[in-house]
TrEMBL record:
Keyword tRNA processing tagged: no
GO biological process, one term: negative regulation of DNA-templated transcription
InterPro entries given in the database record: GAF-like_dom_sf (IPR029016), HTH_MetabolicPath_Reg (IPR050707), Tscrpt_reg_IclR_C (IPR014757), Tscrpt_reg_IclR_N (IPR005471), WH-like_DNA-bd_sf (IPR036388), WH_DNA-bd_sf (IPR036390)
Any one GO molecular-function label of the UniProt entry: DNA-binding transcription factor activity
Protein name, entry field: IclR family transcriptional regulator
Domain IclR-ED: 71-253
Source taxon at top rank: Bacteria
Coiled-coil segments on the chain, per record: none
SUPFAM superfamilies: GAF domain-like, Winged helix' DNA-binding domain
Boundaries of every HTH iclR-type domain copy: 8-70
Keyword annotations from UniProtKB, A to Z: DNA-binding, Transcription, Transcription regulation
Length: 254
């Protein structure tokens, strides 16, 4: 980030409004947006009106609130379809699900979260929370741990400086920087990441990172199964490694 003033303030404010709305669980009042973003209320209303004309936001008159519109959804869907990692990984993830008989997915890092960009549900398997576009805490997921383990220590410290940086879903998983360092040490030693009930109780996952030419994690492939299924990490890891390696080869030629 930079402290340099934006050259096009209206464009900057528009993007900030869309980003803010995308992170909210429900539509919000324009006044709340103005206060949260530090944008004059009159400017927020003008920008919202322009965005509404193009379908990027919608107004809920009964509640006097604003939310994202269908055009924003279509834009996100276009990104998912066109983004090279998702495009090249989609068939590999489907093959992984067929090969293992379990649901498989592909995720990328976004701050302290992972964002799922490909999801393949296996027949007659439990519903998962990893739909395309869903964000989950990286330190709790197999995909996130696989990617975090490939990052420099300084980057991990910047992302997770203290206990306040950690969120919790099921009461399991690392909650301090020291605990996370131990989790990532095991990931590096094993060559894959795992999680057991830390996202959803009763479900387990294993994941492997996809690295670029510099060894930087650009994505991770994972598979998820029920803890009472006739599966274990040892039987699933080879297929996940193979899918990650093939995606890495298709992206970077190695």
């Amino acid at each position: 980030m930079t402290d340099k003033p934006p050259q096009v303030p209206a464009a900057d404010q528009t993007l900030r409004i869309l980003t803010y709305l995308a992170r909210q669980p429900a539509p919000v009042p324009a006044a709340a947006m103005a206060q949260a973003l530090g944008i004059p209320r009159s400017s927020v209303y003008h920008l919202l009106d322009a965005l509404a004309q193009h379908g990027y936001v919608v107004h809920v008159p009964a509640e006097r609130r604003w939310g994202l519109g269908t055009a924003a959804f279509e834009l996100g869907g276009g990104y998912s379809r066109q983004q090279p990692i998702a495009r090249l990984g989609r068939r590999l993830v489907a093959t992984l699900a067929d090969r293992t008989g379990e649901s498989a997915h592909l995720a990328i890092m976004s701050g302290r979260d992972v964002v799922y960009i490909v999801e393949e549900r296996a027949p007659r398997r439990p519903a998962l929370v990893t739909d395309v576009g869903v964000r989950l805490p990286a330190h709790l997921t197999a995909t996130g741990r696989a990617m975090l383990a490939a990052l420099p220590a300084a980057q991990i410290r910047a992302l997770f400086p203290d206990a306040a940086s950690f969120t919790d879903r099921t009461g399991h998983g690392p909650a301090t920087p020291g605990a996370l360092r131990e989790v990532l040490r095991r990931v590096r030693a094993d060559g894959y990441a795992s999680e057991d009930g830390e996202i959803t109780l009763g479900l387990r996952s294993v994941g492997v990172a996809v690295l670029d030419h510099a060894g930087w994690p650009v994505a991770a492939v994972a598979t998820t199964w029920a803890e009472d299924a006739a599966q274990d990490a040892a039987s699933l890891v080879p297929a996940v490694r193979s899918a990650a390696a093939e995606l890495q080869r298709r992206l970077y030629g190695r």
